[in-house]
Design brief:
Structural class: alpha/beta
Number of strands: 11
Order of helices and strands: EEHEHEHEHEHEEEHHHHHHHEEH
CATH class of the largest domain: Mainly Alpha
Helix content: 40-55%
Radius of gyration: 20 Å
Length: about 375
């Protein structure tokens, strides 16, 4: 089992990554000093696969275990209704500030369960047990918790670091192929923002990842976790500018999700399209070489992710959603744009017309040919 430390002084914690490690979860929770009641928050499908194993691992160490397994497995989990359902379950079963919560599932489960933990009785500990590739490489690390509003994603949220993240890549075996594919967008993001060597590894091995080769997936999860731990350790609350790099592809991507019918666009596809939009905008501004844009486009396509924005996503709704983006400062939008593969920067004061043109061009791209020019 590999341990990666997220160094945040008194809020530091380990990200544990390995194969067949779920039986060790109770011992790890004891090791970090937690006691009392545990509430496992999950979705029905994940509960069917892993709730029994996780409960057994905790009970073997003497924990009193409860479960709340009513969450949808999609973005609709992050609603006020579901949040208050968790609160009521905690109160009904006598939870207090000596208790803790476990988020068992994907990113949406982690977001709402973490938010519940951060606000119940002004904050109780929580543990992340991500069972999807997307959550293992990204959302489970860093302490961002949130629920959604109809106006946009993650507009109500907190920073509340977990006490432990426990990633067992064996859980990826039960993940549908489409979920693996969608997570590859976030993995590509890490190569784009931080590590060109990792990007090259992806160019060579992306097909093995799609086939759920656990050896290469374990390597990718570990590298992504190392990068995110370093970024979060240097800028926990996005006050120094470093953590903003993790938003590469997300300003556009979240807007695409919000503008899709009923939030129907999967997050991974939205991030892939968001990276395409950010890359194109950077090329048009002259800060990113077209040849690197083409490498990014080729890898995204190789992962079977989209490079063209569907025309069913209305431009007006995308622009409206971008206006509500929580990363703007004093009303000025900020975009994370690539400078080269392995390096990005935050750029402000980009005209609305350039943003509009970028989105229009993304809807016009012929996915079978190079979109580059100039």
């Amino acid at each position: 089992m590999k341990r990666i430390r997220v160094a945040l002084k008194e809020r530091s914690y380990d990200v544990c990554i390995g194969k067949n490690i779920l039986p060790l979860l109770g011992k790890e929770i004891r090791r970090i000093g937690l006691s009392g009641k545990a509430l496992i928050v999950t979705s029905p499908k994940i509960a069917g696969w892993y709730l029994g194993r996780v409960s057994k691992a905790l009970r073997s160490e003497g924990f009193e275990v409860f479960s709340f397994s009513k969450l949808p497995s999609d973005e609709f989990a992050k609603s006020q209704k579901n949040l208050f359902g968790i609160y009521r379950h905690l109160l009904k079963n006598g939870f207090d500030r000596s208790s803790f919560l476990i988020a068992l599932g994907g990113g949406v489960v982690g977001d709402v369960a973490g938010f519940a933990a951060s606000t119940f009785m002004r904050g109780i500990p929580w543990i992340g047990v991500p069972t999807t590739l997307l959550a293992q490489v990204d959302s489970s690390i860093g302490g961002k918790t949130a629920i959604d509003l109809p106006d946009g994603k993650n507009l109500i949220g907190t920073f509340h670091q977990p006490r432990l993240v426990f990633s067992d890549v064996e859980t990826l075996k039960t993940l549908p192929d489409r979920e693996i594919k969608h997570a590859l967008a976030e993995i590509i993001k890490y190569g784009m923002i931080w590590d060109e060597n990792f990007f090259r590894l992806l160019e060579k091995n992306i097909l093995r990842m799609k086939r759920k080769d656990l050896k290469i997936l374990l390597s990718a999860v570990s590298r992504c976790a190392e990068i995110k731990a370093r970024v979060v350790g240097g800028d926990e609350r996005e006050t120094k500018g470093l953590r903003a790099v993790l938003n590469y592809g997300h300003t556009f991507g979240h807007a695409f999700e919000a503008a899709s019918r009923g939030w129907s666009m999967p997050h991974g596809e939205a991030v892939a399209l968001g990276m395409m939009a950010a890359g194109r905008l950077a090329c048009e501004l002259g800060v990113f070489p077209w040849r690197d844009y083409e490498r990014q486009r080729t890898l995204i396509q190789k992962a079977a992710l989209p490079v063209r924005l569907p025309r069913s996503v209305k431009l007006s709704r995308v622009l409206e959603s971008i206006r509500y983006d929580k990363k703007k400062i004093k009303g000025v939008l900020r975009f994370v744009l690539p400078v080269k593969i392995g390096k990005v920067k935050v750029v402000s004061a980009i005209s609305a017309e350039k943003v509009r043109k970028t989105i229009e061009q993304l809807q016009e791209i012929n996915a079978g040919s190079c979109a580059c020019h100039g």
